[in-house]
Write a structure and sequence with these properties.
- With 174 residues, the chain is of the alpha/beta class.
- It contains three helices and seven strands; from the N terminus they run E-H-E-H-E-E-H-E-E-E.
- Helix 1 (44-57) crosses helix 2.
- The longest helix has 14 residues, at 44-57.
Length: 174
């Protein structure tokens, strides 16, 4: 519905500038991406390969939003994205820390897990503009919990549980 968080609606304006400063510059179309709305059933190795490929081809300053139910494969996909971005160390879910910073091939990679936010206004303190300005990529799980504070993502995905328990559905949302 129009005005929903994460639907390309700019976040609240702040004094001295607009929310997500520079966020519009990292929107682009992915030439080889499947059509939006199509759910691709993938095995875990296929999901990992897809994430690594996307990570290798992700433009600098990208914000990737990953939606989906618990256990749908968001963190697995983030780990693969991070490997594709050149992160050598093991990536873990920042559920309690909220943000983890890793060193990638071109610069810092930030992994955020907004699951524990009790209210979207808690996301205001994350300083999204600095994360995007400093980071090579910002990877966000549970972006809907950040509400209007989340800058427009350059890529949006939803991961799904499927009847075939050996597969996860990967849906490109934008």
């Amino acid at each position: 519905k129009p005005g929903s968080p994460g639907e390309g609606v700019p976040g609240p304006r702040r004094a001295g500038g607009r929310a997500g400063r520079g966020a519009d510059r990292h929107r682009h179309a992915e030439p080889d991406a499947p059509p939006a709305g199509m759910i691709r059933p993938l095995t875990e190795p296929e999901l990992i390969a897809e994430g690594e490929t996307l990570g290798r081809n992700l433009p600098p300053r990208s914000l990737v939003a990953l939606e989906g139910e618990l256990g749908a494969g968001k963190t697995t996909f983030v780990r693969a994205l991070a490997r594709g971005l050149g992160v050598a160390e093991a990536t873990t879910s920042p559920t309690y820390a909220l943000v983890h910073r890793y060193q990638g091939r071109r610069g810092p990679v930030f992994h955020l897990d907004c699951y524990r936010l009790r209210h979207p206004d808690e996301a205001e303190d994350l300083d999204w503009a600095s994360l995007l300005d400093e980071g090579d990529a910002v990877l966000v799980e549970w972006p809907e919990k950040a509400g209007p504070w989340l800058p427009p993502p350059s890529h949006r995905f939803r991961l799904h549980h499927l009847a075939d328990e050996g597969r996860r559905g990967l849906e490109v949302l934008g």
